[in-house]
Automatic annotation (TrEMBL):
Protein role: Essential for recycling GMP and indirectly, cGMP.
Similarity comment text for this entry: Belongs to the guanylate kinase family.
Naturally occurring in which organism (per UniProt): Proteiniborus ethanoligenes
Residues annotated as domain Guanylate kinase-like: 4-182
Its EC number(s): 2.7.4.8
Biological classification of the source: Bacteria, Bacillati, Bacillota, Clostridia, Eubacteriales
Compartments where found: Cytoplasm
Pfam name, any one: Guanylate_kin
Protein name per its UniProtKB record: Guanylate kinase
GO cellular component labels: cytosol
SMART domains noted in UniProt: GuKc
Gene: gmk
Coiled coil (UniProt feature): none
Main location: cytoplasm
Tree of life domain: Bacteria
Residues reported to bind ATP: 11-18
Length: 198
């Protein structure tokens, strides 16, 4: 059994990463989601240990010092990190693991795991992106402005990724990601053992 896929998804705030990932995971039960730790306060509807491991700055910094993170970053005034535990073990056991993380984190993952599949989600337009952040209704006006301003800088990093997915329609975006996963699994380098056995 070869390795599973380490799928990394990034994109600006409000582009629909969370929504697209939820649809993808609902339809593909074999993909496991890496739950991140964060010092951000939970939004209404978010569940501790399911949406994120919600923690405080002191605890997070302790985890950094104990090298408990695969990667971490400071985003929009808060820490976010992928707990090391499980992710690589799962991939090595052949399981596909999904990381929904920011660009700084994705670049760290790419450094030591270049075999990952790096996907960037794009909005149809910047106007639509703004509309989505505003309509989600989870952020203060200042937080919306901060996220929107950062979005312009973030989008420039699309060129560091393997794939760009336009999130115009959720179902279409999910289908595009499923096609990428399918194609990645067909790569010769991922089928060496199967090919040898023919
Ligand atoms: N580096 C890193 N970024 C993360 C992690 N978890 C979430 N993020 C990113 O942090 C950013 C802010 O996430 P969040 O507060 O949920 O806000 P949203 O993007 O507006 O939904 C997003 O770009 C997430 O992809 C993580 O474990 N590591
Ligand atoms: N393809 C889409 N078309 C219209 N609205 C969308 C689409 N994808 C997501 N949304 C909406 O945009 C808002 C932001 O989505 P969310 O998944 O929270 O983004 P992110 O995780 O990237 O910050 C939510 O209100 C969501 O319902």
């Amino acid at each position: 059994m070869g390795n599973g896929l380490l799928i990394v998804i990034s994109g600006p705030s409000g582009v629909g990463k969370g929504t697209v990932c939820r649809y993808l995971l609902d339809k593909n039960k074999e993909i496991s989601l890496s739950v991140s730790s964060t010092t951000r306060a939970p939004r209404i509807g978010e569940i501790d240990k399911v949406s994120y491991f919600f923690t405080d700055k002191e605890q997070f910094e302790k985890m950094i010092n104990n090298e408990e993170f695969l990667e971490y970053a400071y985003v929009h005034g808060n820490y976010y990190g992928t707990p090391k535990k499980n992710v690589l073990e799962k991939v090595e056991k052949g399981q596909d693991v999904l990381l929904e993380i920011d660009i700084q984190g994705a670049l760290q993952v790419k450094e030591f795991y270049p075999d990952g599949v790096f996907i960037f989600i794009l909005p149809p337009t910047m106007e639509e992106l703004k509309k989505r952040i505003v309509n989600r209704g989870t952020e203060t006006e200042a937080a919306i402005e901060e996220r929107f301003k950062t979005a312009y800088k973030e989008i420039e990093y699309v060129f560091k990724y393997d794939y760009a997915i336009l999130n115009d329609e959720i179902e279409l975006a999910v289908k595009r990601i499923e096609s990428i996963i399918e194609a990645e699994k067909c790569k010769v380098k991922r089928q060496i053992e199967i090919i040898k056995d023919i």
